[in-house]
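forwarding from the other thread:

> can someone predict this with alpha-D-ribofuranose?

sure thing
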Amino acid sequence: MKRRPLIIDTDPGVDDAIAILLALASPELDLLGICAVAGNVPLAATQDNARRICELAGRPDIPVYAGCPRPMLREQIFGKYSGVSGLGGTLLPPPSMPLMHGHAVDFLLDTLDEAAQGRREKVTICAIGPLTDLGVVFSMRPSVVRGIERLVIMGGAFSALGNRTPSAEYNILADPHAARIVFSSGAPITLAPLDMTFRALAKPEWVASLKALKRRVASVAAELITFYDRNDPERYGEVGGPLHDPTTVAWLLRPEFFTGRDVFVDVDCEGHLTLGHTQADWRGKTGCPANAHVLTGIDAPAFFAFLKERLAAYE
Ligand code: RIB
Ligand code: CA
């Protein structure tokens, strides 16, 4: 089977952990490395968590690099839903695999440069934390976008209300300037915004069915998701809490589960009340060409059945 080369840029984070586990359970993907960025929790914890998750998955061979410790310009804000450790109350053993020596930005620059020059296959990136590492990469060497096959980003809120301010989603709000650089980079972007992920609701029965598999990875996933649960039927219209980040990996593997549209997306970097708001030009008012494929819908039952099948495959 031809495997798609993938890099995950992430701030684990409970839903990041599930996204990494999904990628590592998927033979279609060749995970070249994980770049940890500050986000849900400080960088020291995100890089440590990324390694704990790789070890849980039995993949201590995956290179994990530490990336940017703070956003480009704004003051730092951390996440609210993954606990102080980033992995809720779940106790995964401290990692024995080493952190790579280089910086995540250098790893991205070198790998994408090779791909841009045709010395390796183009690389897909799932960016599921603040976009700082990629903002720096595209500022340092804009030509590396030619080495990107697809950049799948979890972030943004259009019709949906924000999850951190009334108008902004966390990953974009945490580094709006980096996000703006990324959206204007020319990279082929697929965006998984809250509008779609608010329909990817992990239901208590589904979490219980994961636990009932009585397998280590599935049980840890169930424990993580139980901690992360933001069950709020009044807000989401039904029972369950959204599982944002794994939808990016699922889109790569099962795009037929999703619907979406090509549109022009920009980020508010100045607004006093609307900082980090993403705006999509649904009706072509700006005259700007589309720069992202925005996912608008998900077949949630199919997504959760698929995720469970992949998590069950461990061991
Ligand atoms: O808004 C959802 C995003 O922010 C996800 O990437 C999640 O990990 C978070 O904190
Ligand atoms: Ca995340």
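The two ends are 21 Å apart (CA to CA). thats all i got for now
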